Amino acid sequence: MGQYLKGGRDEKWGFYNTYDFQLPSEHELQSLRALIIPGSNVRITELSDLPWLQALIAFLQKVRKTHPDIKILGISLGS
Fold first, then answer.
1. Where do the structural domains in the chain lie, given as residue ranges?
2. Is 6 left (phi over 0), alpha (psi -120 to 50) or beta?
3. What percent of the chain shows pLDDT beyond 70?
C-alpha cells in the first residue's frame, strides 16, 4: 500500500514506489480518479533490464482495460 497525503476537500494523494513493486491494489483502484507517472532517467530501451518497469507497464495496460474511467498522465522516460 502506498503513502497518502490529504489534499483539498476529501482528496487523497497516494505515492507508490514502483521500483519496489508497490502499485495500487484492486481495492484502491476502485476509488482512484487518476494516476500520475512521473518521469525518470531510465530509457525505454532498458526495459528488459528492469523488471519493475515491466511490471509498471503491465499494470498500466491492465488499468486502461479494466478501469477506463481512471485518467493516466505519464511523463516521459529518459528525461
1. 3-74
2. beta
3. 84
Beta bridge partners of 5: 13
Distance CA 7, CA 4 (A): 9
Cβ count within 10 A of residue 48: 8
71: cell is 485518467
* Angstrom distance (rounded) from CA 1 to CA 3: 7
- Sequence-separated (6 or more) residues with CB below 8 Å from residue 33: 69, 70, 71
pTM over 0.85: no
Model confidence pLDDT, tens digit, residues 64-78: 999 999 999 988 766
Cα(32)–Cα(2) distance, rounded to whole angstroms? 13
